[in-house]
Amino acid sequence: MTMKKTLTLAGSDSSGGAGIQADLKTFQEHDVYGMNALTSIVTMDPNNDWNHGVFPIDVDIVAKQLDTILSVGIDAMKTGMLGSVEIIELGARKIDEFKLDKVVIDPVMVCKGEDEVLQPENTDAMRELLLPRATITTPNLFEAGQLAQTGPIKTIEGMKEAAVKIHSLGAKNVVIKGGKALGHEKAVDLFYDGKDFTLLEKEKLDTTYNHGAGCTFAAAVTANLADGKSVKESVEAAKEFVTAAIAHGWKLNEHVGPVMHGAYAKFGSNVK
Asked: Which candidate, 56, 89, 147, 151, has a CA 20 to 30 Å from the CA of 253?
């Protein structure tokens, strides 16, 4: 028996809903073999409103993890929380060294407020080093605005403008996750392949149990690419998968509710 193999280069979410935990669960649901290189460990303080602590992993240890995984060989990879310019540079070098050609860049940004990134140098490095190596990048509205340097995005036309700019930076394909945050009657994502725009629309879901949705979507795209689907097919299938996961999200505690990674297998595309 053989399985397609996938890599996630990302942080660990100790609560289990996002980060490499979401990625590996999503890979498993897609019947691909997931491997992970940890960039950081994220904890939550139960006695202080679930405030997050981020503990970076030394870049040399990240490199050793990547060498372990890439020596085996992979069919597709994704990035998530990277945490430092040095790790971004490492990821770019390994993509080139191993000639990786199915690369999903999920440009996770730790932000404060609506328009400021805590580590702007990381955004610059992602823009310069990772986007030119991306088969597809999967920013949310905030991240897309930062990468494209357009500022806040509030309309579908704004999404299109940002997608064109991000594509011009080297990403072969772009999908901007508007979801229910966009001022639109439906939950909308926008896919752009350098020529055509495709709107991916679903009914808005009245839920706050969506922790890990972005990671899950990008991981599903990665798994679909590894399985041989086209980029557009991978995005469309990932949209179905994550919509079901959000629809069946659940309450973990008073602070957070994760998506259900097994929802699509259990319930299909039906939403409750």
From this structure: 56
Question: HSE of 22 in the Cβ direction (CA atoms, 13 Å)?
Answer: 33
Q: Is 150 exposed, middle or buried (0-12, 13-18, 19+ CB in 10 A)?
A: middle
Task: Report pLDDT for 237.
Answer: 98
E-state strands within the chain: 5-13, 33-45, 51-56, 76-79, 103-105, 111-112, 116-117, 136-137, 174-179, 187-192, 197-202
Whether residue 175 contacts residue 136, with contact meaning beta carbons closer than 8 Å, is answered with yes
From CA 131, how far away is CA 146, in angstroms rounded?
13
pLDDT at position 178 is: 94
Task: Give the C-alpha separation, 162 to 141, whole Å.
Answer: 9
Cβ contacts of residue 139 below 8 Å, gap of 6+?
106, 107, 146, 147, 166, 174, 176, 177
Q: Which two tokens stand for residue 145?
A: 């605005």
Amino acid residing at 267 = F
User: What percentage of the chain has pLDDT greater than the value 90?
Assistant: 90
Over the stretch 64-88, which tens digit does the pLDDT of each residue have?
999 999 999 999 999 999 999 999 9
Predicted structure pTM score: 0.96
Mean residue pLDDT across the chain: 95
**Biggest distance spanned by C-alpha atoms of the chain:** 50
